[in-house]
Structures are given as C-alpha cells and as structure tokens.
Design goal:
Number of domains: 2
Shape: globular
Helix content: 25-40%
Largest sheet: 8 strands, parallel, barrel
Strand content: 25-35%
Distance between the termini: 44 Å
Strand order of the largest sheet: 1-3-6-7-8-9-10-18
CATH topology of the largest domain: TIM Barrel
Number of helices: 10
CATH superfamily of the largest domain: Glycosidases
Structural class: alpha/beta
Number of strands: 18
Radius of gyration: 22 Å
C-alpha cells in the first residue's frame, strides 16, 4: 500500500508540473545586431520562449548618397560553426522609407530591387542556414507613408514572385492600424504590430518616446477590425536621447549607470541629465550642457501595454508575441514567468 501511495503521489506531482508548464505561453525575440554570436544567456532565453523561432535582421536597404544608389548595408555575420537554438529563423529586412522615393525604388525599377533583395536573402540562407534552421517566412520592416505606400506595396508583390513558397510578413505601426483606410493594407500574409516608439523623439519635452500607454490606447480601438492576421512586437530595450539647444542630435545605446555618472549630472526633471564636459560617449560626441533623456521600459508599464493589446484583440485569433530585442541588456532583467505573462 505504501508503494502504491508513493506512486500515486509521484503521478500527481508529474501532472501538476505538466499543468504548470502547459500554462506557459510561448514568446519570441528579434535579433538586431549585425554579428550573430549566441551567448549562453541568449540561448536560454530562446529555449525558455519555446525554441521554435527567432527573427533575425539580415540587412538594411538604404540610399548610398555618394553612389546615388540603393545598397544593402549592415549585413548579418554568422559564424560558420554557429548552432541555432531556434528551429526556424525569420529573415527581417529593414528598409528606409526614402528608398521608395529614389530612382532605384521607382515603379520601373521595383522588379530589379525585389530580385536583388530576394537573391541576397537566399545567398545568406544557403550559406549559413541550410541544414541548421528552417526558413519559412520573410519579414519586411518599413514605415511606409502616403507618398511611398504604392511603391512599397508593389515591391512586396514583386518580392512574392521572387520568393515563391515563402510566407511574407511586414511590420505595422499603430497609426497604420487606426488610419488603415488612408495608409492602406499591405499585400502580405501577416503583419506584426510594433507597439513601441510611439512618442515624438524629436521633442525635448517628451517623457518617453519608446512607450506611452496613454497614447497607444488611442490607436488600439480598431485593432480587432484589422483585415489581416497579426502578431505583436513589445519593447525590451532602453536608450539615451541626446539634445543640443533643444534639437535632437543622436541616440546613445547601452547607457549604464556608470556611464551616466561619469559623463552626466542629474537634472531637475526626472530621467533627464546634463553633460558635464565635451567627450565621446559610446561613439557619439557630446558637448558640455547637452541634454540626455534616459528612456527605459519598466515591468509595470510593459504589463499594462500587454494587457491593453490583449483586450483590444480579444475577438481575434491568438497572436505571437515577439520582444525587441534579445541583444538588449534590459532583456535579462525580466524573468521567464514575466515574459510568458506578457504573451497571449
């Protein structure tokens, strides 16, 4: 009887553990650095999130002013012996909006631009991912405007032709949800709502341009009516926004407390600092009396944002939650349980 009792107790424990584990919600990450070098911590983050997928920026498309051409830059560098924790890699191509105002992004040249883009994606895939990770989806990240919408959408159509058999997605900003009749709906299979960078970065009086839940709430009312299935990207990064004489001068990344104390003095206004001398700070030249606003993500604000989006999308199918980004030191300050609770 004692043995039977112990076996029963073990079975109950196993069922209980399975129940806890099954309640965890999967989540994913963007990888945004040009060097793909997984660390022990990043591997653990991917595994804890479900290990099925990682969104990796492959390269950017920008205008090279000197050559007067659209060029790919910031191409991701993979180690030949890299081992992927994620079973699937989603290549992400960031495209500057002005690309579609350039002659290389004109209607007559879009087919060529799409072919060149597709060819580069496939070259990277064939060289580094074959036999290591699946590629099923390609994602395009472009904050299109009224003046570039038609060309960007045509580019997407041309890319479909160049990449048959791939699932195509694009990023989506909050204003493109609220004003979809004007901004249009991209011709893709799925979109990813970028639920951050909603404030006015150029305004020195802004408090936090990364996350503003009061402002975001005004754009979510039409989310459940959006005609395409969507996923959601939540912010997990911080930066310092630099101003000189009231004008935006740059962004300082990886701002640590030691860096702040060595180069800046605390201002009267919360999260604002004043440069104490002329110096280089993380590769950016800072003049004495420049103003720095430190913007970060708190757990309470992120929890509130995630809840708002869940409520706004309650009539829709389940969506994936993707955190931007796995390379940020801020990511390590959130536990698996917290990240899972933010996901739907």
């Amino acid at each position: 009887m004692r043995i039977i009792f112990l076996l029963a107790l073990c079975m109950i424990s196993i069922v209980a553990c399975d129940s806890v584990n099954s309640s965890d919600k999967n989540y994913y990450f963007y990888h945004w650095k040009t060097s793909y070098q997984p660390t022990k911590i990043s591997k653990e983050l991917i595994s804890q999130g479900g290990a099925s997928k990682e969104y990796v920026r492959f390269f950017d498309l920008v205008i090279n002013q000197q050559a007067d051409k659209v060029f790919p830059v910031a191409t991701v560098q993979f180690d030949q012996n890299v081992v992927f924790t994620a079973q699937e890699i989603v290549p992400v191509i960031y495209i500057r909006n002005e690309v579609f105002l350039h002659k290389d992004g004109s209607e007559e040249n879009l087919k060529k631009l799409a072919k060149n883009t597709a060819d580069k994606i496939k070259r990277i895939q064939n060289k580094h991912l074959i036999g290591k990770a699946a590629v099923k989806q390609i994602q395009l990240d472009c904050d299109w405007t009224d003046s570039t919408r038609d060309r960007f959408f045509q580019f997407l159509e041309e890319l479909k032709i160049q990449l048959p058999g791939y699932f195509l997605s694009s990023t989506l900003r909050l204003h493109q949800v609220k004003f979809k009749e004007r901004t249009g709906v991209p011709p893709v299979d799925r979109v990813v709502l970028m639920a951050y960078n909603v404030g006015d970065l150029g305004n020195v009086k802004e408090t936090n341009s990364i996350i503003s839940n009061d402002l975001t709430s005004q754009y979510l009312k039409k989310l459940s009516d959006y005609p395409l299935p969507f996923d959601v990207a939540l912010p997990l990064f911080e930066w310092g926004v630099l101003y000189r004489d009231g004008e935006l001068k740059g962004i300082l990344k990886d701002v640590t407390p030691d860096l702040l104390s060595s180069a800046f003095a605390k201002a009267e206004k919360e999260n604002f600092y004043i440069a104490t001398s002329d110096s280089y700070v993380n590769g950016v030249f800072v003049y004495s009396d420049d103003v720095l606003r430190l913007e970060t993500i708190t757990k309470s604000k992120l929890e509130e944002l995630a809840s708002m989006i869940k409520d706004a999308s309650k009539s829709n199918l389940e969506y994936e939650t993707i955190f931007y980004h796995i390379n940020s030191p801020l990511t390590n300050q959130f536990s698996h349980e917290e990240l899972s609770s933010f996901a739907k």
